[in-house]
Amino acid sequence: MEKNGNNHKLRVCVATCNRADYSKLAPIMFGIKAEPQFFELDVVVLGSHLIDDYGNTYRMIEQDDFDIHTRLHTIVRGEDEAAMVESVGLALVKLPDVLNRLKPDIMIVHGDRFDALALATSAALMNIRILHIEGGEVSGTIDDSIRHAITKLAHYHVCCTRSAEQHLIAMCEDHDRILLAGCPSYDKLLSAKNKDYMSIISMWLGEDVKTRDYIVALQHPVTTDIKHSIKMFELTLDALISFNKRTLVLFPNVDAGSKEMVRVMRKKGIEHHPNFRAVKHVPFDQFIQLVAHAGCMIGNSSCGVREVGAFGTPVINLGTRQTGRETGENVLHVRDADTQDKILHALQLQFGKQYPW
Amino acid sequence: MEKNGNNHKLRVCVATCNRADYSKLAPIMFGIKAEPQFFELDVVVLGSHLIDDYGNTYRMIEQDDFDIHTRLHTIVRGEDEAAMVESVGLALVKLPDVLNRLKPDIMIVHGDRFDALALATSAALMNIRILHIEGGEVSGTIDDSIRHAITKLAHYHVCCTRSAEQHLIAMCEDHDRILLAGCPSYDKLLSAKNKDYMSIISMWLGEDVKTRDYIVALQHPVTTDIKHSIKMFELTLDALISFNKRTLVLFPNVDAGSKEMVRVMRKKGIEHHPNFRAVKHVPFDQFIQLVAHAGCMIGNSSCGVREVGAFGTPVINLGTRQTGRETGENVLHVRDADTQDKILHALQLQFGKQYPW
Amino acid sequence: MEKNGNNHKLRVCVATCNRADYSKLAPIMFGIKAEPQFFELDVVVLGSHLIDDYGNTYRMIEQDDFDIHTRLHTIVRGEDEAAMVESVGLALVKLPDVLNRLKPDIMIVHGDRFDALALATSAALMNIRILHIEGGEVSGTIDDSIRHAITKLAHYHVCCTRSAEQHLIAMCEDHDRILLAGCPSYDKLLSAKNKDYMSIISMWLGEDVKTRDYIVALQHPVTTDIKHSIKMFELTLDALISFNKRTLVLFPNVDAGSKEMVRVMRKKGIEHHPNFRAVKHVPFDQFIQLVAHAGCMIGNSSCGVREVGAFGTPVINLGTRQTGRETGENVLHVRDADTQDKILHALQLQFGKQYPW
Amino acid sequence: MEKNGNNHKLRVCVATCNRADYSKLAPIMFGIKAEPQFFELDVVVLGSHLIDDYGNTYRMIEQDDFDIHTRLHTIVRGEDEAAMVESVGLALVKLPDVLNRLKPDIMIVHGDRFDALALATSAALMNIRILHIEGGEVSGTIDDSIRHAITKLAHYHVCCTRSAEQHLIAMCEDHDRILLAGCPSYDKLLSAKNKDYMSIISMWLGEDVKTRDYIVALQHPVTTDIKHSIKMFELTLDALISFNKRTLVLFPNVDAGSKEMVRVMRKKGIEHHPNFRAVKHVPFDQFIQLVAHAGCMIGNSSCGVREVGAFGTPVINLGTRQTGRETGENVLHVRDADTQDKILHALQLQFGKQYPW
């Protein structure tokens, strides 16, 4: 692994697996690309980015004008926990050839999902430095184990909140290697205020929809308790049908249980219900506009408890998937969302409220 | 994963990858097997246990009369870091089928090697409880990253030293889930005192060798700095040749770099040198006798800085592989073992000394 | 691989990957199960049987009351040729552990798909006898290469037609090891005549539909020319919309290109069109009734050119996927199905005709 | 897969797995490289080329001044049949990413080993043309199944003998796509006559050895009957020890059983016996000189029954591994080599004889 002496540019490998991590990595990638005298950027795309059912979101990266150096199929079908493990395995079988070819000085990894663990494991064992984004947070789920395991494999940490920083230090990470930088997607969020949002809202929710008068729903399976999280999703849909407001529902991510959730949507007729619009993927900058002007966001996405705080949009966070995350006052937690009524009541409380931002 | 109510026996899966982890897991496995009213034991064998070059050590497990439920080839050839990552990948592709078949309540994992990370990752993502043996220790190498990552994936911790326990607590593990139990191999060590050791010494080192008058050498590659560790091994052999005492050299483990070290041994003619005996594997109970009565043990094995302390045998610990581990006063650290003279000098200092135990 | 002497039962492993091969293997499996004094049957399920999008067809096997000994996820997501190769690879990484556990005397493999090649390769290299069903046929596509490669790896051949037998002999297979037995699914077909078919037709096509007055469409991607086969599917749907008869459309199989075809169906609104019913899977015995009483079957399924001949139902075979297969006079070939008009014209010619059977 | 129009150079991918296939592929690679106006050459190296125990023979390719575009670890450890299957699987998981990157018009594959089957399978399923070298031969072993399966996956055939050509035609391959070109290594063999061979013989067999007065032994395991082939190797070594001539023994290839054979060599003390020289690898051009001037070659290598015919050196072919291959009159077949005496007798018959060439 010869590194040239003085004028050596830092070779940075950014590996992105899905829509969610790309929204965090993209601002960093733009930053790296803007300094070609210091950095060389290699982009590796894997995971659900390359899967049709998840919207072929690798196209977002092409549209942002990044060269994709390597594409790796890494998802084993099966939609259960076994398939998740096998997918990590598939990534680990394939990544070394790529890393040997690219020879990066550092790899940037985001978050707490199984694909990120594969990336961190391969880089750590191959003696490549790892910069981990958004470590140190605590949500109270299996994601914590993975996020913290990645922290222990990583060498540098860019974290989002004061308490995440403190948690990293508590886990014995070296203070000098932690940067408290805030959430990378906030740059984009904060620069998003004055855009023409009405055409975006019309496009995704229909011509006649007003700001603050629609809902965005985004719920993922909880892999440690799939059955319960599917039940909760069913209750959420029932509550939304009763609540009777125009609602954009995003399909869940690739985790174990997602197929079952899609089946629940079909069973409830969401795809053809006049009040609902069900979509696989909304480009991130448009998604920002949609949540910024929604009457309410509901679900268990980290986006709800994190990014949406930038706009003061009311959020209903269901179940335990984000338990323990720091959230703004705009978030109403419904931890035991086990009846339709509880969820409906939360919708009545939050919908249309305006929190400061 | 139906679990029957009251009379449910705990299904325990013990997965062992090599000679070293088996020496720690065996006492636990005997304990589990002794209580059939409470436990069912499933033994999974993978990694270098199944490889001829590493002594086909799965036979130790058979000789101890355990049923091996599953054998998995998981080592990808290549003897470099890439092959280590791919081997983790291969294990992750294969383990879910096994775990789905065995449906253990808990998996017991030992140590800090790449195979152990594969085991912990698969169990964590499949919602199987993990009991991790010998976490919390600090050695100052890549092993630390892996050991701590496994800690974060594990649910219960059985640790060996007071400071390991404190380090686990510092890393935010729940105190209630940590058991400070000492090193599992100590039971065997301490019960080993009065055996007939002379025949064992004769068998492995020759008829005419006296106690305290031979050396045991066991050196592994350091995967984060392979080149340097091979150089150090070369200097060690030179020093041992000069020192001119009967010496048992064990072949290194399966880590990246081991092939190169074997080549160094060949180049120096160790296999045919009258003073040397080079072997792949010594059964653990015999190994204990050999180190208990040696004039000195040299190398960078964790065994040197840990188990050998039970006998007060002088130990020379070379390089940084065990840096940071707690060691007894019987250990002389030669951190920068970069000349033959330094190592020779250490041999002269330590050989034949008797420390209290 | 100890085999007991005189009273040894033959251990037969049947591995099934999808709806299509199971329809051929099931009659054989029933036969084996009926002779427990001679045979032990192990059933291995892999491939698209275990995938939600393809109807979780492993349930058919459970409903037929076979014990499934092993389930293996073997499909890598990606829906292109690369993913097909990787899926073969995944199967080959996993199958040896299973075969070492089951130690079959013989493995039964059906057909010409990528999963079957994985099965035959693993058995051949592990010195397990292979009985191949439906070899020797010639269709003029990539399937031929795979089918013939499996033939060369196999030891015994059960073929369906006289010309298949002759082709096997021409390829230098030993005549003594070839059994011309006809198509295994014909037993079921021929015993299917007198059942109550009207309720089945009502269930799948609607209350008001009459026999000979509906269409069954089943078209798969052609992996050597995906683009063209998607175009052809689009033209077929257009022709069917124009033709304006009640039509049951089955979703295509897991081959590269299938996702694109599903998208074409969505774009044309087939799922909500009043004349169409789009389904993932019809149980085989019901499917038989549906094609037996259809006005016409259209597509490029081997089922059209083979099984449907048992009923004299008119068939329109599109494109080159079945080129070279022997077919009955009930089949109209439209090799260059490159305009909507050609296909429409074929529908007008064939629909409602009655061929002898 | 865009291909440029008129001036398109043919992109040729040559994939080589080991010393043996490289000796056949190298002359073709030199030929391709000599015509850069027509061809682009991509070299992919995998299999035992990259393994230390097999001599890291990828260095031969570098010494021949070819750029190696991709190196893939594809060998799973285990040295049994299961590991061979898993190695095919590992190659199939990795090759598609490489082929998608290189986008070759044609792939050149040699021979009949498990790695070649992986190459042919991946190319066939990805719609890449395959040129197969040395198909159509018949040896009477498992190699036949693999060789013929590759034939059925391949599109073009370059074969070595008239009867191979006829066998390809018999297997229904298109005559227009078969080129009877002779063995590619013969070019090198025939140009090798006048070199300074004495220094090569001295280097590998010792100073005092005369031409026609030494033996070259090269025996591989037979994977369908490993036990028997190890026994035969033991008898061969006994016979060679009795025969008491200077002998060069090459280590066997990576197939299942090879470890056991190496152990037999160790047990018999071959590595330190004054009459024997045991080596992993001899560069092909030197190997040619050694066999050309040997008193006899013994073993079961295809090289014995094929290349050595170019020099009239006496050959003793043991067992069934090459049964059915066409051989010259210089070859003495000892099919049932089940006693030391039979082999010794053959040595007495053949050693030092001179056949015409």
From TrEMBL, chains A, B, C, D:
Organism this protein belongs to: Geospiza fortis
Lineage: Eukaryota, Metazoa, Chordata, Craniata, Vertebrata
Family matches, as Pfam families: Epimerase_2
InterPro entries the UniProt entry points to: UDP-GlcNAc_Epase, UDP_GlcNAc_Epimerase_2_dom, WecB-like
UniProt GO MF annotations: hydrolase activity, hydrolyzing O-glycosyl compounds; kinase activity
Boundaries of every UDP-N-acetylglucosamine 2-epimerase domain copy: 38-348
Key words, A-Z: Kinase, Transferase
GO process annotations (BP): UDP-N-acetylglucosamine metabolic process
Protein name: Bifunctional UDP-N-acetylglucosamine 2-epimerase/N-acetylmannosamine kinase
Transmembrane segments: none
